[in-house]
Design a protein that fits this description.
This protein has helices spanning 2-20, 42-67, 72-96, 102-107, 121-129, 131-134, 141-149, 156-161, 191-203, 209-218, 220-223, 227-241, and strands at 24-28, 34-38, 109-113, 163-167. The chain is built from twelve helices and four strands. The protein is mainly α. It has a two-stranded antiparallel sheet with strand order 1-2. 60% of the residues lie in helices and 8% in strands. The protein has two domains: 35-167, no CATH class; 173-241, no CATH class.
């Protein structure tokens, strides 16, 4: 069963590799753990920027309607608000909202430090102030060229601040197992054996009853049962391994 599960994971990796492997940024944490950060390209970043632009325009529109009733004082306050919305909006949100603005959140993107750590205030300030350079000579041309030339899709602001925009991994849902009373295994299981049993429980709904019984028969020394009872015992062990007591 372990070989079967490993083969399945291998096939999945082969399907993912052609589309994402070339954009991964691998970093090594101080603990020696290798992290692979799926870097975002210029297209999703541009769409996220467009969403943020619409949000900022909406904020400024509301400000203009409210402050317009205050005459000259309102005009002065509007200039201050315009400055804050243009410059403080991305800096504050990226530093205080886990590296995301509304646009990045909508597109599933996040700004992180070059080593994969959460982005801090100083990098957020630097990368956003550098937008004035990325916009040269017009329409973010310098930033686009940098994104296309850098294998991790970084614009000039990212290179200076040592940041990278990555895709946020979808949240893993708790695997659904068939209903069964949690059952502790009667012997010590190796990590790959535990993973194989959990995978069996997770995929049981996609397997025929005959196929489940066939796989359960391979683990008769562990369950001490065959057929439907062996399948139920495996489901119970899988639930126990996942912490269902």
């Amino acid at each position: 069963m372990s070989a079967h599960v490993a083969a399945g994971h291998g096939n999945a990796a082969q399907r993912v590799a052609p589309t994402m492997l070339d954009t991964y940024r691998e970093v090594l944490t101080p603990e020696g753990v290798a992290l692979q950060l799926p870097a975002a390209g210029p297209v999703p970043r541009a769409l996220a920027w467009l969403i943020d632009l619409l949000v900022r325009m909406a904020i400024l529109m509301v400000l203009s309607m409210v402050l317009g009733m205050l005459g000259g004082l309102g005009q002065g306050l509007y200039v201050i608000g315009l400055f804050l919305v243009y410059w403080a909006y991305p800096i504050v949100l990226e530093a205080a909202w886990n590296g995301q603005t509304p646009g990045k959140r909508a597109l599933g993107l996040r700004v992180v430090a070059g080593d994969g750590a959460p982005v801090g205030w100083l990098p957020a300030v630097v990368r956003n102030l550098m937008r004035s350079v990325d916009m040269l000579p017009f329409g973010y041309a310098a930033g686009l060229v940098s994104c296309l030339c850098d294998r991790h899709g970084r614009r000039l602001g990212d290179l200076v601040a040592d940041t990278v925009v990555v895709h946020v991994r979808p949240r893993q849902l708790e695997p659904r197992l068939p209903p069964a009373t949690p059952l502790p295994p009667g012997q010590r299981l190796l990590p790959d054996e535990q993973a194989a049993i959990v995978a069996f429980g997770e995929r049981a709904s996609r397997l025929s009853a005959g196929r489940q019984a066939e796989l359960a028969a391979l683990l008769y020394p562990l369950t001490g049962s065959a057929g439907g009872e062996g399948v139920r015992r495996l489901h119970g062990i899988a639930g126990w391994l996942l912490g269902r007591r």
